[in-house]
# Entry
Amino acid sequence: MASMNELYKELKKYGRVRLNEPMRKHTTIQVGGPAEYLVSVNDNDKLVGLLSYLSGEGVPFFILGGGSNVLMSDNGFEGVVISVETNKLDCQGGKIVCDSGASFSSLVSAAAANSLTGMEWAAGIPGTVGGAVRGNAGAMGSDTSQSIEDVYIWKDGEIISLQRNECDFGYRNSIFKKDGGVILRIIFKFSPGDAKEILRLTSDNIAGRHGRHPALPSAGSFFKNIKLANWPGEPGLLPAQYRERGTIPAGYLIEELGLKGFQIGGAGVSQEHGNFIVNYGGATQADIIAVVEAVKEKVYNRYGVELVPEVEIVK
Ligand SMILES: Cc1cc2nc3c(=O)[nH]c(=O)nc-3n(C[C@H](O)[C@H](O)[C@H](O)COP(=O)(O)OP(=O)(O)OC[C@H]3O[C@@H](n4cnc5c(N)ncnc54)[C@H](O)[C@@H]3O)c2cc1C
# Structure
């Protein structure tokens, strides 16, 4: 492996390098100790070059998008955190070709500006397109996978293209979560729509989110919702809207247990929304995990269901 000095010099070829950079500055929940190296990369060729170099040298690396769905360790990261800041975005007819580091909101805006429908639901979701593809981000019954045509990834030294049906997309899931790979570029395909209607829906969704998102730092919904088919209790006792929808919001179960505002250390369940675990001030990963475990235990003891985190916990 390269010496620290050699590694630092090499990393500078690919982008801005910061040493011992606190990850809490780069995550929306504002938690995480120092990354030994944080490299910001804004060009796909450089990203591929850096990935090849690090894998060749056996240096551990972690890919960071917008940091809106991760909970980093209090010990930080030993190795290189790559902040993906590639952001080319090109609209060609009904298609948008987009670098993985482009903000998800820039994709929503580009679709709207070109009178393309299909991304209105995503207005107001933070993070990058790469993070949204890996986690198949979704809201209001839609998700990212629905508009994807192809995904280009770097994996084991090769650039591979996958068609949508090869990506194993599911509820907040994809092949990239299971088999890894760094998402480089995505081709989205949309239908033409009515410009005014697209703008109206987009701004309504942004306004709606302002009321729903807690003001304190978070990583979005912490737990996945539960499919009705996996509900061990009597479905008739659930509110009709959840039976009709076929999913039970994790936040509903947490709120029913009176856990809004429940705190350990600097972390706790939001006062506004049962499925948001927020940083009340100075929270550590250990505080958040203590809250997560306590909530999981209480929900399991009461309902017999195991809550599964949606947020990526990096230990
Ligand atoms: C206030 C708030 C509201 C939210 N609302 C929603 C919502 O409605 N729906 C929803 O689905 N989510 C929501 N989220 C969660 C989050 O915004 C999304 O999951 C988002 O898509 C994550 O993208 P990111 O770039 O921030 O990913 P990050 O948090 O940076 O990374 C998440 C994971 O993806 C990996 N990753 C990132 N980029 C790449 C890449 N290029 N290649 C391979 N792996 C990569 C990381 O290594 C990590 O494991 C919300 C979050 C917040 C804070």
Observations:
- The mean pLDDT is 96.
- Residues 28, 63-70, 84, 100, 125-128, 130-132, 134-135, 137-139, 176, 182-183, 213, 218-220, 312 surround flavin-adenine dinucleotide (CB under 6 Å).
- The first helix runs from residue 4 to 11.
- The radius of gyration is 20 Å.
